[in-house]
Design brief:
D-Maltodextrin-Binding Protein, domain 2; 5-stranded mixed β-sheet; binds zinc ion; binds 1-O-pyrophosphono-5-O-phosphono-alpha-D-ribofuranose; alpha/beta; binds magnesium ion; 226 residues
Amino acid sequence: TAPARDRLRIAIQKSGRLADPARSLLASCGLSWRESRDRLFCFGETLPVDLLLVRDDDIPGLIADGVCDLGVVGRNVLTETGLARGASGGAPVFREWRSLGFGQCRLAVAVPDSWQWTGAEQLSGKRIATSYPGLLRQWLEAQGVDAEIVLLSGSVEIAPRLGQADAICDLVSSGATLAANQLKPVETILESEAVLAGPIAEFDPVRAGLAELLMRRLEGALRVRK
Ligand code: PRP
Ligand code: ZN
Ligand code: MG
């Protein structure tokens, strides 16, 4: 368990799609910070709520380790990390507290444009490149399909053209990346968006109070946005 702290620390993406919307949503909750945006740590001025700017993939782990209290992260990353931790015997320690209404995308299986798609059984015996092995494996099992998962940490969309895989499973937002690589989405594995992630366990009273205040303001800010 984390040592008692009298400030709340929220991890957000340093750069990337969720970075600016996460920061402006928190700002609309009345938070402001002293540091400039190129720093990795932003000290909260109006409330004792600090920001840590990190790689999105690191956010669930930072919460699990108690380094950060909350995080703004894609449901895809949160779920995948949870599955990976579960697979290695870890008990669940973080969960989705609330969806945040931005960063909508889906985790999809995509195949070369030239394929005539008939259904999941078409993937049987095929190699599928992904950065989401846990979610993909779970989906394949539910479909009763036996396929080989090729783990890549990035540039997944190019794998079929390189002969490294037959199909892919990756995030689709506008669809431009798939189209540019002559791929088409055929199955949705997970509907995703930015979420507020936090621990399953309760905070100490000071941080619990801060988190409660933040949640109340978040509800207000999100209601106004609708
Ligand atoms: C995601 C995903 C695709 C791209 C799809 O990567 O991995 O590469 O966005 O978006 P599109 O459908 O609008 O073309 P992103 O750069 O967001 O995140 P990552 O660097 O964490 O993979
Ligand atoms: Zn990422
Ligand atoms: Mg990407």
